[in-house]
Each structure stands twice: as structure tokens, then as C-alpha cells.
């Protein structure tokens, strides 16, 4: 694992190489470190007490990917995190999502609720018709096994769109 440190001399993040020298960190290294920090901050059992906390978590997890990633937050009946799972990986502008696999995982984890999320590498957080259609299919499939769908958050860099806030859920 690469160790990151902050240089107050030039305000950049640095990594130490195998020879012990400090070099500027790449964007991927910085994003990887951010994902590790958010994993430490939000762990199993942590309660998502506000939409802002959910968005912050999902931005840290999904921002910066050059391909679409569809992820699910599996929650218990008190909306505490059971598990964050990146379920499907796609191309630069789409990802295939299979409701059967999401239902299987929800049952395996004994989840009571879910929050869907995926990124838009284009930087535009607006939901497409396909995003709305798959959300509806997933919600209907999960409702058959009494798992509530709380939201679907699209992450585009630091911008987000919440289906729940727009009345789409």
C-alpha cells in the first residue's frame, strides 16, 4: 500500500516510493486514499442520519472512475450500513444491472432497505430514462421480498442527483 503525506511546502500530496523518496501523488492514488478514509469513517453499523452524509459517502466512493459503477448500500431496519457493494461495472456511458443479483445480495445480507448509486463519468448528474427505468424495476423486484428502496443517487464528480429528493422514488 502506498503511503500518502501532505507537503505544506507546496500544498501537494506526496507518496513515498520503494527507495523512500517522496514523489507527487497521482489522481488515482489520491482517490484511492479518499476511498480508504471514507471506509474508515463509515463502517458497518454506522447510521446514515442525513441525505448529505449519504451523498458525501457515495461521492468519495464513486467519483473519479472513468467507467460506470453501479453500487448498492445495503441497510438494516434502522438504516445502518450492513455493506456497501459495487455490484456492476460498465463502460464510459452505461452499465448492465441485473435485478435478480441485487435481490439475491439483499437476501444474503438480510437487508431491510437499500440505496442505489452509480456514477456518470461524463460529469452530468442528470438521470437518464434508462436510469429511471432500472430504478423502477429494482424497486419492484425488492418490494416482493420486503426490502425498501430509499433512494438512487447519481454521482458526477462532486455533483449528485437524488431520486428521492426529486420525487422519483
From TrEMBL:
This is DNA repair protein radc. It comes from Congregibacter litoralis KT71. SUPFAM superfamilies: JAB1/MPN domain (SSF102712). GO terms for biological process: proteolysis. Residues 47-169 form the MPN domain. InterPro entries: MPN, RadC_JAB, UPF0758, UPF0758_CS. Keywords: Hydrolase, Metal-binding, Metalloprotease, Protease, Zinc. One of its GO terms (molecular function) is metal ion binding. PROSITE patterns: MPN, UPF0758.
